[in-house]
Structure formats: C-alpha cells, structure tokens
Design goal:
Blueprint (H helix, E strand, L loop, with lengths): L8 E5 L4 E6 L1 H8 L3 E5 L6 H12 L2 E4 H9 L3 H8 L1 H16 L4 E4 L8 H10 E7 L2 H9 L12 H16 L4 E4 L5 H17 L6
Parallel strand pairs: 3-5, 3-6, 4-5, 6-7
Antiparallel strand pairs: 1-2
Helix pairs in contact: 1-9, 2-9, 3-5, 4-5, 5-6
The structure holds shikimate-3-phosphate.
Length: 209
Amino acid sequence: MTAPIPSNTSVRDETSNRPAKPVDGRQLRDALAGRAIVIVGMMGAGKSSIGKRLAQALDVDFVDSDDEIEKAANLTIPEIFERHGEAHFRDGERKVIARLLSEGNRVIALGGGAFENPQTRQEVSEHGLSIWLKADFDTLMTRVRRRSHRPLLQTPDPEGTMRRLMAEREGNYALADLTVPSRDGAHGDVVQSCLVALSEHLLSGTTQS
Ligand code: S3P
C-alpha cells in the first residue's frame, strides 16, 4: 500500500534521475480543482496498478473505466466483444467515461483504446489532467502475456497486433498533458514519477507551505 503523502514529502524521481522535489498531496488535490487525473496508455502499461497507488498517495478515489463498463453491462469485456462487437463496446466506453469525468476529483484509468475517441479526448482535456503511461513493446508484451482476457490480443499474432496498435495509437497518447515512462517491476518508482510530473505541472511557480 502506498500511504497518503503528508505535506512536503520529498519525492525522488528515479525514472528521470531528476533531483528531489517536495510534493504536497493536499496542494496537488487543491490545484486539481475538482479535475480527475486520467491515466491513458496501451494494454499492459500498468494503468490500473499505477492509478490505484497514485490515488492512495493523493488520498482520492480510484476508478477503472473497464470495471465500470462491465458493471453497467453486467457482462465481462470479452463477453461484450463476443456478443455485441467492438463498436458497441466503444460506444458504452465513451458514455461511461463521460460519466466518470463528471464525478470530480479522482484517478481514472482508461481502457487502452478509449483515448482514440476524439470526443473522449476533448472531455478528458476539459474535465481532467491526463497522464500517458508510456511503456516499451517488451514491457507491454511481458505484462499482457500474464493474462489472456484481452479480446483484441486473441489473434494468431498478438505481437504483431500489439506493434500495430502501438503505431496507430501513440500519436493520440502523446496528446496527454503529461508523459511518464512505465517499466516492469517498478510500480513504486512509476508512482513517484507521476507525483513529480503532477507537481511540476500543477505547482511550479506556487509557494509550497
Ligand atoms: C482495450 C484495452 C482493454 C479493454 C479492451 C480494449 C484496447 O483495457 O478496454 O479490452 O483497445 O486497448 P486495458 O488497456 O486496461 O487492458
């Protein structure tokens, strides 16, 4: 468990080796002014694991758009794809994310394809602050191989599919407000990097009390 950040905790950014910066969870929450932190990126980037820990650190709620879609449909994502097709899933995904964004200050992990939708990108930019968790191909494949529930990777060539989706999507992920590298086996470090990036983005120029 990542404990909530007390005021003026110094957080090391081990990913970029930047010097320690003071991070204040309360100030970060205030600076968000009701906006959500929205985590985007490919399947296997660690959006839910990192998002949960980031929410704990900031003492806000965490929600995963895939879980909410499953609850709303009372079906699993593979069942939605199988019974109704991807277009139906995407339509439900867009609506669920719009609702989650209207519910205020929290961390939201989006499904890997959600940021492809221009309306969702627009709504995220209006009501949230987005972080692209950027992982390389090997990291993504190592993680997605551990679980076989993702319908888009049920192809004869999952590696080729992953490479194609990365190439198609990276331009849109790059539109996120912040980009944080994500690598295997270092969740704590990635959370720290998110906190430093948020702090620099939201608090630079403000006086930390
Ligand atoms: C998808 C990613 C999945 C899920 C669905 C489609 C995608 O979420 O939304 O299987 O299009 O990349 P994760 O990114 O959480 O695996």
